[in-house]
Structures are given as structure tokens and as C-alpha cells.
Amino acid sequence: MTVMTAQPPLSLIPTGATEISAAAAMIEDEHGGRVFVHGHLSFAWDAGDTAGRRFAAVSLMRIKAATQAQVAAAFNTSPLTVWRWGKALTTAGVSALVPHRKGPRRASKLTPEVRATIVVLREQGLSLRAIGERVAVSEATVRRALTEAEAEAEADDPTAVADEVQGETEYRATVSDAETGAGAQAEPMGRPEPVAEPVLGSVSGAVAPVLADPVDRRGERGLAAFGLIPYAPPVFTPCGRAPLAGLLLALPALAATGLLDTAHAVYGEFPNGFYSLDTMLCESVFRALLGEARAEGAARIDPPALGRVLGLDRAPEVKTIRRKIKYVAGVGAAGDWIAAMAARHVADHPEQAAVLYVDGHVRVYQGTRKIAKTHVPRLKFPAPATVETWVADAAGDPLLVVLAEPGASLASELRALIPQMRAMVGDERRVLVGFDRGGWSPTLFADLHAAGFDTLTWRKGAIADIEDSAFVEHTHTDERGRTHTWELADTQISLDIAEGPRKGQTFGMRQISLFNNARTRQMHILTTRTDLTPAQIRYRMGSRWRQENHYRYARMRFDFDSHDSYRTADDDPTRLVPNPAKKPAYQKVENARRTTHSAQTARDRELLRVSTPPPGATTVLTNTMINTINADVHAAQTTLDAAIAAHQGIPARLPLAQVHPGQQVLDTETKLIHHAIRIAAYNTAQTLARAILTDTGYTRAHDEAHTLIRTALAGSGDIIPDHDNNTLHIRLDPLPAPRHTAAIDELCTALNDTNTVYPGTDLRLRYSTKPHR
């Protein structure tokens, strides 16, 4: 048997040529360039022939002799540029590859003096829009001038340039050989290959490597396992293009909610361990802003990415989050925590506390535990559920939440909330309290008035219409500058109090009447406020739907109706609840009344017939005839009396153990803790959205502010600590649209004015954005 050895293939690359791929090589010197394909000279160009050089690059890619990335590397450009050359060649021919003169066709306004002025104004903290108006140029020109100034400053610093080159070399070393291998397939011309570029974030000469590894915290984790440290403080390492760096935009607004300060005042600090109370609360709010409000959502967020934002090596896991929340729930002070947050919000926004909207919210339960049933408005039928009573301010921002007892009415919950609302407002000023018809109770209106609150609600029940002549046109201009016009009638009414210590008295109120949109019926608003115009009353009543907007937004973004805990407890067996036997007994009374009424009608008709004989005839009525006619009435009356006696003998309320033995209630403390976090997350997003409306010139802010904020919070950026100046600089990557980046840049200027300190450190937050390329 003859053994044959494999002979290595002959090299087809000419001497001195640079390999482009397994099939192509190139020689480029002072005389021009030559490209060889399988050893044959295929393309050549003279020195200075840019169009010929570009044609050779595109042709190599078209004949599939090399991939787009390989061609870009050989010709010292980017794949996107190669793709653009190919598109230009296809569209307009070789002439399109001839380079054209760049720059303005006329004298530029961006003179050296203007550039210097722009840099000085930016250092003073002015926004791009304000700088552009000051020097009479566009925002794009201001952004370009700042970019060029920064590039010139870095070029003048040889140390920074050397560090940047070193960082770029380290980055390129991480690219796998497979990305540049000869066996790679060429991408289609219509879609350029994405390229990972080593963008280094720098502030004042400091260089941040892309996706730098966080500080090793294994030693602290070991100490925390034995309880030897109180907690691990946040430690930031310079990092460029850190995912989720945009979440740090939320910290100034989060600090304004008082979530962290009030938590320390109520709970103190966690026992010795790795994660602090600040870290856990910031993580929970950040996760909610990313749309993962439940603890299980931590499994869907990259732990190292979220850890960089928290100043840790990684974010806490699901079991850690649940364990920490369980510890906080064991204190039993969630109600006090939310009340403290509400008082902080009212103190910071007194103008929004002029109106308080109160509404009940039903959260359906889908589990297997025996939970009391409640009518669910969204489902239109009773189902196992819990009822929450929410208090919001004039803007619809949530302030306070309490979990109501099963079967409690809004009127009873409002009466119980009077002391908490007074403590939240904190003074004796009269506040307008708005609610829907579920809180209808003249007794409640009188109690609110006595406690220093004014009522704002819809009238319940049918009443006579107001004369059309009483309606007058009224207008009101809201906070957005929109003018509303209504036809309203302003009258005074008196309501009868049918219960309580004021039973038998009357209570006077002001009634604002209006037509529905179709002008087919009248609606009536009741209030005790006398200093507001009818249009202002109408606007305030309509603004109650802002609270419904909070429910809808939180349901979509924050898992508002989710079950954050499936723990249950036995309901109070001695609690008095409505007797279910009372309703069917009352129904029997109503049926007996209807039967009695029908019998009386038939008796009267028969008596009329026998007592009015035809003309010329006589009729003699005997006791027997009368008894026969009245027999059905007597029988119906006897049945009615028995039904009334039976109804009165049934107690209206019974202990829960007799009506629903074994009934349970869901864990309220854990739910209130999650609600506190959701309140802070919602108010944080609202604060940032309002800042877009007021502090930036974004023209579509009313329609896109919340979407823009969600996009910015999920964005990437550079995290650069500067311990010499005690600052933490967040340099955000540009958003997809330049106008979005400009709006966020102006938001950064407004946030810098807050001088917010990162929780647990002495680093002041500083924000900026990278310009578009």
C-alpha cells in the first residue's frame, strides 16, 4: 500500500502583498495600488485616484472575494463606508465615487470667536438652545462646536491620546478571529454589517474603557456572610457605554419623592449584610422603571448591567429581594412609611395639594384561597378581590393608599381617612376632596365640612331638571393654556341627613348643573366650595379622571394588580358582616307588597262594579258579599305581615365565622411596601416627564414626554467617577433622533441644578449627553 502525503497548496499571494482574505491580497505604495484575486492582477489605481481605489473595494465585495468587514479593514475604513460606496456606485456609477469638497459653500458663522464663546457659555451651565439663541446659531452648530472643542482638547493632551490608543488596542484585541476569518460570508449590499466601535467616554481627560469590569467585591461578600460589615457601599469604576446608565437620570426625581429618607426614618437600616436599604430601594425603583416591578422581574434584567448602576458587582437576585422585603414587612410600618412619603410630597408641592381625589380600586384575586367576593366594575360581576382606597393630588399623582375591609363602602372609607388626610395636609387650610357617586352620603358631606374639608362629587339619584334659562356660558383656562367652555347653572340646594347624630337635619350645598355631550340629560355637581367659579368646579370634577390614568398607567407599566405576595392570614372571625339571609327575606316582603297591592286593586274594581248597578236595577250588598270580595286582600295582608315579621327577626349582621367560616385575607403589609415603591416610581417618571414639558423646548412634549423618558432611562452611557471633585459624571449615549438627544441634554442641565448626591456616597451627580456623529 502506497502512502501519499498531502502537499500544501501553493501560495497565490504576491511577495510584499497584504492579505485581504483567502482569495484576495493588495499592494499599496506611493505609486498607487494593485489588488490580486487568486494570484491574478484584477484591479489597479494610480496614486491619488480615490475613485479607482473605492471601485476596487466595492468590486472585491461584489465578486465575493472578501467580506464587507475584510474589505473595510484592508482599505482602512468602516464597513458602513464601504456599503455607502457600493450604494453610490449602483445609483450613479463610478462618478459618484469621486470625492467632493466638504464643508460649507459659504462663509461659516462658526468663527474662532464664536467657538470660544460657545465653550464658555456651556461651562456656565447654559443649555444648547440657550447658547444657540445667544450666539445666533442653530443647536446642531452648537453641538458640533462643542464636539470639535473637546476633540481638540484631547488632541492637545498626549497622555489622554496615549491612553485612548491603548484602550482601543485592548478593545480590538477582544474581537474574535471568526469575525475576520477567510470563511466568513459576504453580507448583502442593502444592509451594512454592525460594527462594535471602541467609544471611550471621557470627562476632563478621564478615560473610561468600554464595559469595564466592576470592582471585585468578593471580599466584602465574604465579610457580609458572617455579618461583619453593615453594608457594602457603592463603588463605581470608570465604564464607557454601560447598559442602563440612563437609569441614573431618575435619581434626582427619586430623591424628591422622599422614598429613601422616610424609609430610614421608619425602618432604620438592615441588619449587617451586603446590601443596604438604599441599594434595595433604588434597585426596586429602577426595576419598576424598566417595566419589571415584581421581584421575579430581576431575573429578566442583566445583573452586572444593573449592578454597575448601583455601584456593585451585580444586582441582588430574586431570593435576596424577597428576603429583604419580608424583613421590612415584619416591622409592620408600611402604612406609616406611605403616610410620611405623602406628607413629604404635600410639603414639596403645596399647590398640588389644593385638591385631593379619593377613589377605590378593586384588585381581583385569581388564586385558590378563600377570599371575600367584591363587585368588580371592570368585570361587571362579583369575584374574589381586595379593595384599596387611593388618595391622589390635583395632578393625579398618588399620595396615600389604604387597604379597605372586605365589603366596605367608599363613604365609610372616606370617613376613616379624614384624620390621615388632615395629618397629611398638616395645617388647617380647607382642601377640596373629590370622589365619585360611590361616596354619596349627606352625613359624610357634613362630617367632611366639620373637619375642614370641602366636598366635590356628582349628585346621586333622579331630580327635576333645572330651567334652561338658568344656564350661562362659563370658560376656564387650564394649566396647559387650553380654554374650556361649558353651559353651567349655579344653584343652592339642601340635603336631608338620614343617619348619625345629625339625623333629621339638613345640609346646604352648592350645585353646578351641566348638560351631557348630547344635551339629552342634565348632570349635577355638588360642592361646599364657594370661592371657585362654576367653570373651575366643573374642571376640577373632570380632572378626577387623572387618578384613573394613574391606575391605567401603573397597570400597564408597573404590574399594578399583580400579587406581590401569596401569603394569607385568617380573617377576623368576630367581625360583623352583612347577613346573606337578609336579602332574600326582604325580597319576600317586596313580593308580598306587590301581591297585596294587586289584591287591593282587584277588590276596589269589584266593589265599584257591584255598588253601581245599571239604571233601573237595584243591588243589595251583604256582609257575605263584602267578605268574599275582601278575602284575597285579607290573605295577601296576612302574608305581608308574616314576611315583614320574618324580615325584622333576621339580624342584619352576623359574625364572619357564621357566614363565611374559614375566610382569609391577603398579606396587606407586603402589598403596601410594593405600593410605596410603585408610588415613588410613578412620581419619578411623572417628574421627569413634566421637566421635559417645562425645562426643554421639545415641541411634541405633550404627546411623547413619557415615551422619551422611558427610552432615555433604558439607554446606555458612560459612568465616570471623579473622587477629586466628588462628582459622578453620567455621559449618556445619543438617542435615535437628534431632537430626542437635544431634549435630554436640556433635561440634564436642569438635573445638574439639583446637586443630587448618589445615595450612600458623597458623589454629586453630573449629567451630559454625547453629540450625534
Describe the structure.
With 773 residues, the chain is an alpha+beta fold. The chain has 4 domains: 20-97, no CATH class; 207-331 and 668-769, no CATH class; 336-558, Transposase Inhibitor Protein From Tn5, Chain A, domain 1 (Alpha-Beta Complex), CATH 3.90.350.10; 580-650. It is 42% helix and 18% strand. The chain contains 24 helices and 24 strands. Strands 8, 9, 10, 11, 12, 13, 14, 15, 16 and 17 form a 10-stranded mixed beta sheet that branches. A hairpin with a 2-residue loop joins strand 3 (32-37) and strand 4. Helix 4 (112-123) packs across helix 6 and helix 22 (668-695) crosses helix 23 (701-713). It is elongated. Residues 1-8 and 158-202 have low confidence and may be disordered.
Core attributes:
alpha+beta, four-stranded antiparallel beta sheet, ten-stranded mixed beta sheet, elongated, 42% helix, 4 domains, Transposase Inhibitor Protein From Tn5, Chain A, domain 1, 18% strand, 773 residues
Topology:
Layout: E1 18-19, E2 24-29, E3 32-37, E4 40-46, H1 50-62, H2 68-74, H3 79-92, H4 112-123, H5 128-135, H6 139-156, H7 158-172, E5 201-203, E6 206-208, H8 218-225, E7 239-242, H9 251-257, H10 259-267, H11 277-289, H12 303-310, H13 318-331, H14 334-348, E8 355-364, E9 373-376, E10 381-392, E11 398-403, H15 410-425, E12 431-434, H16 442-450, E13 453-458, E14 472-477, E15 483-496, E16 506-515, E17 522-527, H17 534-542, H18 545-557, E18 568-570, E19 576-578, H19 582-611, H20 623-649, E20 653-655, H21 656-659, E21 664-666, H22 668-695, H23 701-713, E22 717-722, E23 727-732, H24 738-752, E24 764-769
Helix pairs in contact: 1-3, 2-3, 4-5, 4-6, 5-6, 9-22, 10-11, 10-14, 11-22, 14-15, 14-22, 19-20, 22-23, 22-24
